[in-house]
TrEMBL record:
Membrane disposition: Single-pass type II membrane protein
Keyword tags: Cell cycle, Cell division, Cell membrane, Membrane, Transmembrane, Transmembrane helix
Transmembrane stretches, start-end: 48-71
Protein name as it appears in the record: Cell division protein FtsL
Stretches of the chain forming a coiled coil according to its record: none
UniProt-listed HAMAP family: FtsL
GO cellular component: cell division site; plasma membrane
Family to which this protein belongs: Belongs to the FtsL family.
Known role: Essential cell division protein.
């Protein structure tokens, strides 16, 4: 057992033992009551920055409202134009159908018979574009 005692002593170094360090003493700052109630006024630059920022925000709000109104007007105009295009397209289709009806050979023969005219089909030439 003596061997173990020597080994333990050789490996034991007093510098390795952790020594608890003492905390630094805390300094307490006492504030006088008169310095707490003092309010620091805004400087000229701070006031100017607040004023400029407020004006910019107001301008952006007005621009946003104006843009939304313009967008609504544009959408309304687009809807009106689309409606007009639909009406014109429908009218064109009706007129094309009427042209087809008026150009039919049955109708031409009926018209000729009603007015005492003769219809010679070999003399008719159809021209298309």
């Amino acid at each position: 057992m003596k061997i173990m005692d020597n080994t333990a002593r050789k490996n034991f170094d007093e510098t390795q033992v952790a020594v608890p360090q003492q905390a630094a003493p805390k300094t307490v700052v006492q504030v006088s009551p008169s310095s707490v109630d003092v309010k620091v006024p805004f400087s000229f630059i701070e006031r100017a920055a607040i004023a400029v920022g407020s004006v910019l925000v107001l301008c952006f709000m007005i621009a946003l409202v104006s843009a939304r109104i313009a967008l609504g007007d544009s959408q309304r105009t687009l809807q009106t134009v689309n409606s007009q295009i639909t009406n014109v397209t429908s009218n064109n289709n009706d007129l094309k159908q009427e042209i087809g009806t008026l150009n039919s050979s049955d109708r031409l023969q009926h018209f000729a018979k009603t007015h005492g005219l003769t219809f010679n089909e070999q003399a008719v030439r159809n021209v298309s574009k």
